[in-house]
Amino acid sequence: MSIDLLLPWRGVAAALVVSLAWAGLFRLLRRSELAGLGAGIGLAVGWILALGLLTGTPRQLPERLPALAIGGALLGFVLAVLGRRGVVAVLLASLGLLGAAWWLAGGPLTPADLRRSMLPLLALAALGAAGLLALRGPVSAAVAMALLAAGAWMFGPPGPWFLLALAGLAAAIGALPGGSWGPAAALPVAIGLAALAAGPVLARGSTADWLVAAAPFAALWLGPALGGRIGGRAGEPVGWAVAGLLPLIFVWLWHRSH
User: Superkingdom of this entry's organism (predicted)?
Assistant: First the structure.
């Protein structure tokens, strides 16, 4: 087996190792507010290695993702250290979501560009906010990333989306020992989740891309409600699975009919 075949997977492996090491270290140091950042740190490292680039003037959307992940991890760190709750936390999180949306929308600077980009910018910010409010821990982050990875593998456009989602899944799994999970830990993951969900929609915008993007948010928002109706210890996992897999089943049926 050629080593070249393994190189694209180094980002996934690095995301797991870095996230696990960060979460474990700060758990041992009894710094629970920092231990939860393992997922965001692992995500940033994994995306940098998976894409192998970090440019100051990106032309395509994937080129914007490493800087986005680094910014999200740094903002999560600042949020964990300086403002874990109250007005400061809300302000920092809001600025982070708006900044991420602006960056993903192409970084418009002139008033004309801002007007043209306003709709996707606001939609991206809302998508990030939806993830931030619904991500309650590494398990929910892993479920969301796994659904995106499955959708990208089966129906996604050409590009790095599948590997990037796998890196996000690995980072979430590595953060499991961290225990504590608050807005600081959820913010970089929510930004990454919004970028991964919106990327194929912005790049291609097919029906499949829209449905795949809906899968993780359906699981995060509708899964707990379905789980409550099902009841029992398995209720919530089953609810997540039903809510998240339903959009992917629709994609599969749509593909079969075309």
Answer: Bacteria
